[in-house]
Amino acid sequence: MEISILLLSYIAILGFILGFVASKTNFCTMGAVSDWVNIGDLSRFKSWMFAAAIAILGVTIFEFLSYFDLNDSRIPYRNSVFSWPRYILGGLMFGVGMTYASGCGNKVLIRIGGGNLKSIVVLLIAGLMAYIMTRTDFYGIIFHSWMNPISPDLAILGIEDQSLSTIMSSIIFAANTVYYKLTIGLLVGFIFMYYIFRSGSFVKNADNVIGGFIVGSVVVLAWYLTGSTFGQEWIETNDFLDSPLPGVGVQSFTFINPMGESIIYFSKSADIYYLTFGVAALLSVILGSFVYSVISRNFRIEWFQSKEDLKRHVIGAVLIGIGGVLSMGCTIGQGVSGVSTLAIGSFITLISIVIGAAIAMKIEYYNAVYEDCSFFDSLRSSLADLNLIPNKFRTLEKI
Question: Confidence band (pLDDT; 50, 70, 90) for 174?
Fold first, then answer.
């Protein structure tokens, strides 16, 4: 128990830093997509990519040095079973949901720390959905029953896992996979870096640089804490307990399933037995955001403006709760932690989240301008705007 408390204390420090810095720099993945879709500004999107690049490079180097191995992470990002329906459908649901809920999992916590009571409602509903998805038969009946049969197992093809480096080394029959994986990881990370910094404009906004760097670094450090010698001692010690602690394993930051774990934690009168990695991370992010909002005098109590506003957030919360678990992560969980492992599924989830959010934003924009248009008119025009269908299928004039 002592080593568990010590490790969770370290995680809480990282979570506090994440919450404080994300609040200070306005690191927001939904905002990043919104800036790109609505005004063509990629600054915050590049900050998100910068976080992913830092995480990819950190994980690649640490794995090469044998500091940890993420093949057996608690969330099986590199699972050989390629669950593409989960990545696509879950990602799309999450993207749409975070648009209606005014933020992804991380942003919900940031907003709570800043005094937004609406986000507490979102957290509770999303947490309930996560609980239902992970601790009842709901997922098995509604999703697993048809998704699993159409999800191929790459192991049948002799491919150990779905990471980009493993797949590439298997295709070319690389003899020294360790160095080959290092090369692939560094190459992907530096390609990200080249795209981010090539114009020179990204560095002009210090907040975007700091936000991306800190988020990426926090993800790597969490991997290190749970996957290194210290983390292995935590895991092995837990295995010998008569009642093993829940949530123990190699992992990094993600926020949807921990919302469900937090409901369990508080329903058990905050029993320390139920204080998992995810709960410690979630609470500390809120605390970090709260401290910054107080220091900066930005703390503001906010509530729903109307019944329509409440309905919108409830729908969004349901979608991010179900979609986040289905896709095995949120914009941080899959978009940074998962992408850092170079898992193909994480990249697909990330793209699906962006597409889902972009479509939802476009539809809302068209509905605001064309008040009498149908949902399908807005949908087709939005898809045409995003070049997902030919422009000839557009039914509304582009705006």
Answer: low
Residue 19 lies in a domain: yes
pLDDT of residue 210: 96
Average of pLDDT values for 165-171? 84
Q: Are 219 and 61 in contact (CB under 8 A)?
A: no
Sign, Cα dihedral of 344, 348, 353, 354: positive
Alpha helix segments (H runs only) across 240-343: 256-267, 277-295, 307-326
Contact yes or no for 334/341 (Cβ under 8 A): no
Return the structure tokens found at 119. 């986000």
Question: Residue 200: left if φ>0, alpha if ψ -120 to 50, beta else—which one?
Answer: left
Count of beta carbons in the 10 Å neighbourhood of residue 175: 8
Range of the domain at 350: 2-68+82-149+160-393
**Which has the higher per-residue pLDDT, 340 or 372?**
340
Please report which helix (H) or strand (E) contains residue 74, including its range.
Answer: none
Tell me the C-alpha distance between 65 and 58, whole Å: 11
Confidence of residue 234 (pLDDT cuts 50, 70, 90): very high
What are φ and ψ of residue 53, in 5° steps?
Answer: -65, -45
Identify the pLDDT of residue 175: 57
Give the model confidence (pLDDT) of 54-108 as tens digits. 999 999 999 999 999 999 999 999 999 999 999 999 999 999 999 999 999 899 9
Return the percentage of the chain with pLDDT > 90, whole number.
79
Supply the DSSP string of 144-165, one letter for each residue: IHHHGGGS-BGGGGT----BHH
Reported as type and span, the H/E element at residue 357 is helix 344-369
Query: Residue 74 falls within a domain, yes or no?
Result: no
C-alpha angle 293-20-25 in degrees, rounded to nearest 5: 85
From residue 2, how far is each of 150, 233, 252 by CA, in Å?
44, 11, 20
Q: Is 164 within the bounds of a domain?
A: yes
Name which of 192, 187, 194 is nearest 164 in CA terms: 187
Give the chain's domain count.
1
Distance CA(24)–CA(129), nearest Å, equals 30
Distance between the two ends of the chain, CA-based, in angstroms?
A: 58
Q: Is residue 312 part of a domain?
A: yes
Average pLDDT on 190-218 reads 92
